[in-house]
Amino acid sequence: MSDIPVLISDLAIILFSAGLITILFKWLKQPVVLGYIMAGIIAGPYTFGGPMIMDAENIHIWADIGVIFLLFALGLDFSFKKLMNIGGTAMISALTIVGAMMMLGYITGLSLGWSHMDSLFLGGMLSMSSTTIIFKAFDDMGLRNQRFAGVVFGILVVEDLFAVVLMVLLSTLAVSKHFEGMEMVDSILKLIAFLVFWSITGIFLIPTFLKKTKQWLNGETLLVVSLGLCLGMVLLAVKAGFSSALGAFVMGSILAETIEAENIEHLIKPVKDLFGAIFFVSVGMMIDPAMLVEYWFPILLITIVVMAGQITFAASGVLLSGQSLRIAIQSGFSLAQIGEFAFIIASLGTTLHVTDKFLYPIVVTVSVITTFFTPYMIRLANPAYQFVTKHLPTHWIHFLDRYSTGTNTIRHKSTWLQLLKVLCRIVITYTILSVFTIALFLQYLTPLIRKELPGLQGSLVSAIAILLLISPFLRAIMMKKNHSEEFQQLWSDSKYNRGPLISLIVLRVALCIGIVMFVISSLVNVAVSLLLVIATTVILFFIYSKRLKKYSIQLERRFLRNFTARQHEQERKAPIKQRFVKHLLDRDLHLADFEVSQSSPSVGKTLKELNFRQTCGVSVVTIIRGEERINIPGGEERLYPFDHIIVAATDQEINVFREFVENRVEKRKHELEQQRPPEVSLEQFTIEANTPLVGRTIRESGIRDKAACLVIGIERNGTSIMNPAPDTTFETGDVVWIVGEKDKLLHLAAGETI
Fold first, then answer.
1. In a domain, 33, yes or no
2. Which residues have C-beta within 8 Å of that of residue 669, sequence separation ≥ 6?
3. Cβ-Cβ contacts under 8 Å for 448 (sequence gap 6 or more)
4. Structural domain includes residue 575
5. Following CA atoms 143, 148, 153, 156 in sequence, which dihedral angle do they give, to the nearest 10 degrees?
6. What is the pLDDT of residues 66-75, one digit of tens each?
7. Does residue 448 share a domain with residue 360?
8. pLDDT at 3
9. What's this model's pTM, rounded to 2 decimal places?
């Protein structure tokens, strides 16, 4: 009980200081993350001669929870479906950035005289841009609908995955304290197996669970279930020897495939914001201002390396992927910072005691500086593009244009390549599922079965159970794509294709026979020849079993249904089909969504009157009004408050339209503020004998129609008439209660004729 007051007082200091400083940073139009770090510096042990926080261990625990929820939220925005759809641009660009920046960071650390471990961690920290900061900057600057923003978001998605993998690899390297190729390969294979197994298992089970329990899932229960699933996967990741952050990220990416993803993201945001704030405050608490003065040169050098390196390598990677020079430069300038993953990797090095103390505050300071400059760097992109095109040789520009056009040209893919690519994915995925299932069963369930059924009987039961569990996976390895369009085309095209095609089937069957032999030999001592016969018999049963075929197809359909449920729901609700959006992008046109403000002067006017096409060059494609969607609206269609209008235009035209709308709304708000309409008030007055209201009904008096006032009550002879009917007659001595504008009420009270 004695710890409770300290816990509360420390939390109060953290949140109070964070709240005040972030309000100041909001006023200065700076990211709140910087405010949290500044609050941590103020509350830390180095600023005022002593720590304001009494128990720093509590802060570290909350900070660890903050990392979990930050990674969980990133996973919710990640989605493996999104990773599959982003295309080669994001993958090539992210690989270029991460690889080059890691190498550049490592070389920079060594050039400063730092150790190999410090330099390696520095390279990891500098290789990731800040998803949070870039999202916020694009939102504030109205750039989210521009083409380069889509490229940047795709790169960030891939970088998020690389960052999680990098954390695991750095942890492994830090624990072993030296680099061994096979050990690192082993760690990578274990990581891939963990990601594949739990991602597929989660997508198979969790969407179905949420769908079955949907009627009982309100906001409260959905939040609790989501957090429970997140922390459950955290426990599994830690049990498997990985970090808690990896488990949170994996569960977030699984839930991102469900139709409840948006609801979960909305519900988890306050929790993430709270613990995220504590995490960033704890980051600030570890910064010693005196150390920053001492290490001013490394800070300056690393800042220059980050900004110049990210701009150069990001632009190069985007160019290499086939995008235009303008898109490449805009993307490079947008990615010129490091963010939350740098903090997490720095915390990892500190926690594992493998990096020096000076590295953490240096990297945080570099992150703060580069974050501060992010909006300015984004604005500099267009001037930089103009400068480059002005000074770059003309033949270089023509070469880049031809390269961009040639790369984006649709090429015919080899049928063999398509078939082999799909088969590799199928074999690897189902093999991992089979191996993980076998390993989990042998480790946890086989001992229980043998305890109840000792001897050969328990071993046989375990073997049969394992083979039944993995039978759908083995059948998929052997039989999938054997009747596909690609397979049939290759079989029909040439007789020389038939040998390799049969060999592919034989190899897959042999792999499955080997897996079955491994299962049986792990549990039962059988001669090799007999083992081969048994395994072959089992495999033939799997191939020809109609029941297993039906069950395997059902499992696959259920997985695909869960995997694509969110996408189908989004397509159902989307005003414009994604295929149409891609056609627009090919023509350098984009779709942008604008909400009609309540105070907009466009409210009540027709599209013909507004004439957006002539004024700004944009075309209104769709109007969304609640659940109603008006596609290709006519000129007589009117706009109403809270309507969403979807317009198609180029980047420049969308910017012109945004400024046009914002200026009109601001002008209208200013006009309304200047008008200051009279307030409505409630007054009472008594009807005297000589007033013209005596003997007239409420309707005849004109109080409603001419004076714009409303009679809401009459007191007569000790009784009250509430909301009197229009044909009620006024009598001498009536006390009348009227609502209206004050000046008009005064005229009525004075007995003036209406």
1. no
2. 599
3. none
4. no
5. -120
6. 888 888 887 8
7. no
8. 52
9. 0.68
- Beta-carbon contacts of 245 under 8 Å, excluding residues fewer than 6 positions away, are 67, 68, 71, 164, 167, 344
- Residue 713's CB: how many other CB atoms inside 10 A? 16
Letter string b/e over residues 399-436, b meaning 16 or more CB atoms within 10 A of that residue's CB: ebeebbeebeeeeeeeeeebbeeebeebbebbbbbbbb
List, for residues 433-480, the tens digit of each pLDDT value. 888 888 888 888 888 988 888 888 888 999 999 999 999 889 888 988
In 3D, which of 274, 542, 317 has the Cα closest to residue 407? 317
Q: 151 near 318, Cβ under 8 Å? A: yes
CATH code of the domain in which 622 resides: 3.30.70.1450
Residue 738 near residue 698 (C-beta atoms within 8 A): no
Residues of the chain with pLDDT under 50: 1-2, 408-413, 580-581, 583, 585-586
Q: What's the burial of 103, exposed, middle or buried (CB within 10 Å: 0-12/13-18/19+)?
A: middle
CA distance 121 to 346: 7
Spatial distance between the Cα atoms of 284 and 296, rounded to a whole number of angstroms: 17
Instruction: Calculate ∠ Cα 296-302-306, nearest 5°.
Output: 145
Domain boundary among 674, 690, 705: 674
The answer as to whether 283 is a domain residue is yes
Report how far residue 72's alpha carbon sits from residue 145's, in angstroms, rounded to the nearest whole number. Answer: 25
* Both structure tokens of 167: 């954390």
534 token code pair: 């048994």
Residue 590 token pair:
């984009």
User: Which domain covers residue 198, as residue numbers?
Assistant: 58-391
Q: Is residue 692 domain-shared with residue 654, that is, in the same domain? A: no
Report the first-to-last Cα separation within the chain, whole angstroms. Answer: 74
User: Quick check: is 375 in a domain?
Assistant: yes
The CA distance from 78 to 97, in Å, is 19
